[in-house]
Amino acid sequence: MHLVYPAVLAALLFCTGLYGVLARRNAILVLMSVELMLNAVNLNLVAFDVWLRDELHAGQALTLFTIAIAAAEIGIGLAIVLQVHRNRGTADVDRLRDLRDDAPDAGSDTERADREEKAEAAA
Amino acid sequence: MTGTGTTVLAAQAHGFLSPTGVEVVFLLVGLVTLGAAVVTVTTKQLVHAALWLVVALGGLAVEYLLLTAEFIAWVQVLIYVGSVVVLLLFGLMLTKAPIGRSPDADSGNRWAALGVAVAAAAALVWVVADAFRTTWIGLDGDAPQGTTKVSGEILFRHWVLPFEALSVLLLAALVGAIVLSRKRGKEEKR
Predict the structure, then answer these.
(1) Residues from chain B contacting residue A24 (CB–CB below 8 Å)
(2) RNA-binding as a keyword (chain A) (predicted)?
């Protein structure tokens, strides 16, 4: 089999998941799109493992680890989403904007640049 | 060196215009998988999105089988289709997702998201196709690659420590999920 087929399929699946993460509004749908992206990576890992005929089968072992970590991630993520829904009454990521900079036009340009510099320094 | 040489020769011997049976099946299942993934991220009905995700993940399991990674395929079916999708459906129910079409399933920046996704897809597919267009995977080798025996041997011979660390991580995630979703009765009473 040509390696191009699984590689291209993985790239397209990843971009589908990317679109879902960026465009979806419900947090659970965002989690579904993240699962799609993780699966694209898994397909790449398996395909390259089979191609390279690795002695340690690192690709397949890493795929199993990714699947387990994805399961852990979905559990924690859903717990957080449920908690947010219980506290706020919504699971829409668009409405969770407590950390948003509320008044983008309030400060002058120099002030904003100063703030951004501070944020970069803190990061 | 001889291995790569034979791979290149094999790739030249195998053109794209005369696909093998495995490749045809892989392409068809890949189309179904991709279509299901696209429906998952575009449908307006939230529960249908989870059900189409089952199709996409099951298609990926078939792709793993075609790539001779047998054990991974069954793990995929067990964990993803069996538990992750069920968890997602439970999450949809517990957050009182609307049954039927919900017009606000997509946020306002979907066109920007579409632009980003299409640009990323074009770049990735171009690079990947350019880099690996002559690479050939020999699937019918003498040594089995992904049977349960091989996977178990490598997992418990070479990857024991990461495996055990992963079980600790899963336990931590389990405890964390319970702690997060527990109702805080005592603190509210105080």
Answers:
(1) 41, 105-107
(2) no
Would you call A87 helix, strand, or coil by DSSP?
A: helix
Q: Which residue of A has its CA nearest to B44?
A: A24
**pLDDT by 10s per residue, chain B, length 190:** 444 545 555 555 677 777 888 899 999 999 999 999 999 999 988 889 999 999 999 999 999 999 988 999 999 999 998 899 999 999 888 887 777 787 777 877 889 999 999 999 999 999 999 998 888 887 776 667 778 888 889 999 999 999 999 999 999 999 999 998 887 655 554 4
| Predicted complex ipTM exceeds 0.90 | no
Compute CA distances B186 → A87, A122, B51, whole Å: 17, 37, 38
Q: How many whole angstroms separate alpha carbon A83 and alpha carbon B159?
A: 36
| Contacts with A, B 71-100, CB within 8 Å | 71-72, 75-76, 79-80, 83-84, 87-88, 90-92, 94-97
CA distances from B47 to A76, B50, B64 (A): 20, 5, 26
Whole-prediction pTM: 0.84
Q: Are B146 and A46 inside 8 Å of each other by CB? A: yes
Q: Which CATH number fits domain A4-97: 1.10.287.3510, 3.10.20.600, 3.30.470.20, 3.40.50.970?
A: 1.10.287.3510
8 Å CB contact of B116 and A25 = no
